[in-house]
Structures are given as structure tokens and as C-alpha cells.
Amino acid sequence: MQNKIEVIGLQGVPLIKPGEDLSKVILQALNSNKIDLNNGDILLIAQTIISKSLGRLRNLKGIKPSGRALSIFNIIAQKARSKNISTKTPEHIQAILDESKEVIKAEHVLITETKQGFICANSGIDKSNIEGEDTISLLPENSDLEAKKIRDALKKATNKEIAIIITDSFGRPFREGAIGVALGISGIHPVIDKRGAFDLFGHELQSTIIGQADNLASAAQLVMGEANEGIPIVLIRGYGFDVTENASINAILRNKDDDLFRNKNFLENFIYLLKKRRSYKLDFISKEIEKRIIENCIDIARWAPSAHNSQLWRYIFLDDPQKRLELIEKINEKLRNDLRNDLKNEEFIENKINKTRVQFLQAPCLILSCADTGDLENYSDKERSENEFILGVQSVSASIMYFLLALEVNGLAACWYSAPLFSKEIVKKTLNLPENFIPMAFITIGYPLKEQKLPARKGLSEIIFKV
Ligand SMILES: Cc1cc2nc3c(=O)[nH]c(=O)nc-3n(C[C@H](O)[C@H](O)[C@H](O)COP(=O)(O)O)c2cc1C
After folding, report:
1. What are the structural domains, with CATH classification, of the chain?
2. Which of 37, 74, 76, 332 could form a disulfide with 160, with the two C-beta atoms 3.0–4.6 Å apart?
């Protein structure tokens, strides 16, 4: 191994346009920098110019975000807000999803596994160093292939044995600061396997594998810069390596089973979600909720268990503001009478009614959950019929619980209210519901304005009853 290498940034590389032949651009740049290629040179090329030459660009304006993109937008927008960071638009998120195989984490940033198998932020999509407000650059589909094409063309032109590395910079989970990574290689192996070699003291190395391509990419990054330095091509000279044909960056991509960090995430996120969901009443951000997001959540609520798989739950959108007002006023009338019968004083009653009004009328979305008793089993005796009814209530409750969790996943806050249960006939009549329907609960939904505090929970010993 050498004790000295040179890292030379090529000056004066012009802005690259789609369709441009990069090997020609490189040869011209070498020429104008008065450099002749030597055997053993390594050329490191920034991904941005590869993507530009390939036309791997998209205009955000032409992208229509899917329901999933909108859901993810809501999650990361909420997290970004709490950290005071700007967030990606739903269109940008759609582009990220289009480039990904899997979303690994949705924090204030999206961590994805790209279609190429890289795990990085935002599927490696870049907006910097790209002309145009709404234009983004996508990672090359096959950087190894692009590296090989350039290497072959340069070999043909110069008859020199060189290596090519296409580079990008990725952030790291445990340290601040992005570093250079190799996206594609040609002529050089991505790692040096030192296992079986001996250290200074004669101990056999058991697990040492050196990420040489990433190390070289990082060295190049020192002269490439990230901002407006405009040095997308770097020559590294004097680094000794074995020329390797058919090397591929895929050799170092860990498969899922060997990924020590990814496997646990799903379970941890799920447990976090279960504990994080809170009943949220007020206030909401004044932002409309896309109906299809709520429909997606109802779609998930279908997967709750139900006795005899009866699936007797029904969900009703109370979208019409006039109808909603009429319904709440009628429910409140009954509430007023009920409270008077309880001998509550008028001030208490007015407060209660005003609160109900605010909760149900100000929620951006109000859903009524019902049980369709037409889906219950019929029994000849009273006891079994009553039990069957309880099973129905339990099943609707399970579905509402799934619904609440699905809303939480979508960054939406909700609360389960039992008011309709206390005004069953009024609700049925006002909304003209089928005779078999029993109103069970209101669910108010909106984007939360603040964090909810964790309400008290009984200890485990209080709820595990020993017999
Ligand atoms: C069956 C059921 C009925 C509920 N009814 C009401 C209600 O009428 N009004 C209300 O403010 N909250 C209602 N809630 C919400 C509970 O008060 C809330 O779940 C409880 O305080 C625990 O808070 P958490 O959901 O944040 O853990 C209801 C919850 C359930 C499960």
C-alpha cells in the first residue's frame, strides 16, 4: 500500500445536459487540465452529472401524489414541524416512493431502500446543483453499468487501465455529516477483504473488510464539495489496487437478514405507536383532510377481528355541515334534558353543551360508527341473543380501535365519543339510517396542533387479577 496519493479535482467541467457523452466531457476536462491518464488512475464522477446526462430528471409539477404519499407527508410534516425543519411536498414524497422498494423509516426525512438496493435518505433524490426550481435528479438506475460504459470508452480512447467510481454522499444513522459513497464501480472491487491477514502483533484478522470504494469516494468528496464548487470529476492517482473486471457495488449491499438495524424497527415502531396514540380533542390545524386518507384508515379497520367474522361495523362520514349542525343540536337537546333530570345546575349544563358543540362542530372530520345488527346471528333464547349483541359491540369496538391506530399512523389525531349511543333514536332519525343500525360512537379527526400528555395508566399488578 502507498503512503501518498493525489486527489485532483478537474477544473472547468461544463454544465451537463441530457444526452451528453460523459466520456468525451472527461477527456476534454483531462486535456484542459493538462493531465494524461496513467494506468492505475481512478476517476470519481459525481452522480448528479451521470443522472443529468442520462436525463434522470423529473419535474415535481407533473407528479400526482397517491394516498400513500399524502399519508407519509402528514407523518413527516408533523415531525418536521416539531423540529422546526422544512418538509418535502407530497409530490416530492411521491417521487421518493417511486424510486423506492421499501420505506424503512418516516421521520422528518424519509429513509428508503431504493430500487437499486441503497438505504439512504429520500431515495437519493437531489434538488441541489440542478437547474430549475421544480426539477429533481434521480439516482442512475444502474451505476455499475454507467461506470463500465465510461471506463470502456476511456480505455478505447487512451488504452489505459483505469477504474471508475460513481459517487454520491449519504448521511449516516449514528453520526452527523454526510460522507462519500460509491454508487457504482468499474475496474475496482468495492472492498478489500483483510480476513486471514495478520495485524502488527501477528493476530489473524477475523472480520476486517475495508470499504475501499467508499473511502475513495469520501476522499474525492473533499475536493468535489457539495455546494457550488462545480467539481464533479476527481482523479485519484497513486492508490494501489487490483484491477478487477466485473466488480459490482451490489457485492457490498447487505441483504435484509444481515442488516442488524432494520429488522427490529417494525416491531419497535408498532409498540411505539400503540403507546403513542392518545385521545385528542382540540385544537386542530386548519387543514383539510383528504377523504381518501380516512377511507384508507377505514380500509384498515376492516381487518379487526369480529365474532363469527360478522364485520357488522359501518362507518358514516358526516360531511354536510348543515346536517352535522342539525344532528349535534338535537343530541344536545337530549343531553340538556338528561342533565336536568340528573338535577345538574343550568351553568353546568350550558358548559357541557358548549363543550360538546365545539368538539363535534370544530373537528375537521366527524365519523359516526354504527353496528348493523342485521349481521348478528339469531338465537331462540334471550340470553344468547343478548350475548350475541355484546359480541357485536365488542367487534365494532375492535374495528374502531384499528381505525384509531390507522389514523395515528397517518399523523391524524382522533377521539372516540359515546354521545351517539345516548341518542340512538335521534341519530337514526336525523340521518335516516336503516332500522338495523345502532349508532355506537363518534370519531372526531383532525391534524393535531399540540402534543397530548400521557393519561394515567393502571399498573400491571392492578389489572392482572390472580385467582
Ligand atoms: C368506549 C369509549 C367511549 C369513549 N367516550 C368518550 C366520550 O364520550 N367523551 C370523551 O371525552 N372521551 C371518550 N372516550 C375517550 C376516553 O376518555 C379515553 O380513551 C381515555 O381517557 C384514555 O385516554 P387515551 O385514549 O388518550 O389513552 C371514550 C373511549 C372509549 C374507549
Report:
1. 6-262 (3.30.1330.100), 278-462 (3.40.109.10)
2. 37
